[in-house]
Amino acid sequence: MNKTNIVSLVLILVSLGLSAQHVTSPPEYVKTLTSRWKGERLEDGRPKVSDALLERLKAINVEEAWGFLRGKGFHNQYEGGWKMVHDDRVLTGRVLTAQYMPLRPDFDKVVKIQGARENRDTIGGSNSWPIEILQPGDVYVADGYGRVIDGTLIGSNLGNAIYANSQNGFVFDAGVRDLAGLVEIEDFNGWFRGDDPSYLQQEMLTSINAPIRIGRAIVLPGDVVLANRYGVVFIPAYLLNDLVISSEVTNLRDQFGFQRLKEKKYTAGQIDTQWTDVIKKDFVEWLGRYPDSKLPMTREELNDYLKEHKYL
Asked: pTM for the complete prediction?
């Protein structure tokens, strides 16, 4: 091994050693993970996507989001098979991640010592640490390796704390307890694997705001969640704007197509295949008569999208 490679290896090992000293990832590490985001950031380094976009995202269905992401090369962003606190609601928000593992006493001691250095509450359980740093609009996303019995990350007390800090909800690849109490928290929702009366045992928090795995999905801190009864999608923040407007235009195309089919102006085959220039021109004229007040985006955003995708 030459001198340059040795120096590089030492630097890598030093970097890994420094990062291993943290329970919560430093902002610079989070910024590196999400370097393609060019907008405003939270103090912890996560992308701060706008509340307006999060609200618009609620109208997008999971399949559209999934399809958009696959088209961008992101094949591992969806997970299904959930239970929900309320199955008739949609959740969107900025991801704060946490990872839990089976308890190993020596490792747990290191985590507790470092947590104290980070001014975490060492009197109660470490499962309160991610909750304490939630901000409005956050969604608490935790990898609990699918454990339900003795793997209940929250009950009604911590559920109330999650909502008080975030005004939002959670996604847990794990269990919850006191589901009856969680249901009573107004405007609160969560996705989880199962509920059980057992307490959290033989399990330890290992990281906050680091990459985690939720089922078959890979999640980074600062991703955006779209969750409903049909599953959960984790969206890289830098793709959110394009995903939302693309899905909104797809919905407008569907409205146009359904109307034209009812009018028998075009056949199903013409609508279901790549549109001709004639149909595109008809669609643009139809959009011109669409009331601005009913558009999900601004007219300027719509026109920019149409120009970029060669409708105009």
From this structure: 0.89
